[in-house]
């Protein structure tokens, strides 16, 4: 049996689950929801960096990134921040789409899967 480690969990979710050499992050959103999409993206990616570090890995080992935007009109502004964050030569598989997010002031939510 392979161990499963859960980080920062409550009754509903874990912010990260580690299993079999892979880290699965929950969707992360910004704390300051008054920020524009670029500001929210910066906040989210910083939280992802912290969670990956807590799990013992980093963004250079990202395997897959899923990005949800409140509106596709924010795609370019989000990408400017995201593209600067990606470790050169280590771009993960990625998808991005517009969805109805949990609250109207959430402009972006990002989920990452990474290797240890």
From TrEMBL:
Transmembrane segments: none annotated. This is Translation initiation inhibitor. It comes from the Bacteria. Pfam families: Ribonuc_L-PSP.
């Amino acid at each position: 049996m392979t161990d499963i480690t859960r980080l920062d969990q409550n009754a509903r979710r874990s912010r990260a689950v580690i299993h079999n050499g892979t880290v699965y992050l929950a969707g992360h959103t910004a704390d300051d929801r008054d920020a524009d999409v670029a500001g929210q993206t910066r906040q989210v990616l910083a939280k992802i960096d912290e969670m990956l570090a807590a799990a013992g890995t980093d963004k250079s080992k990202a395997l897959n990134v899923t990005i949800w935007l409140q509106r596709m009109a924010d795609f370019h502004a989000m990408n400017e921040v995201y593209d600067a964050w990606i470790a050169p030569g280590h771009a993960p598989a990625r998808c991005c789409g517009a969805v109805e997010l949990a609250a109207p002031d959430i402009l972006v939510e990002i989920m990452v899967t990474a290797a240890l």
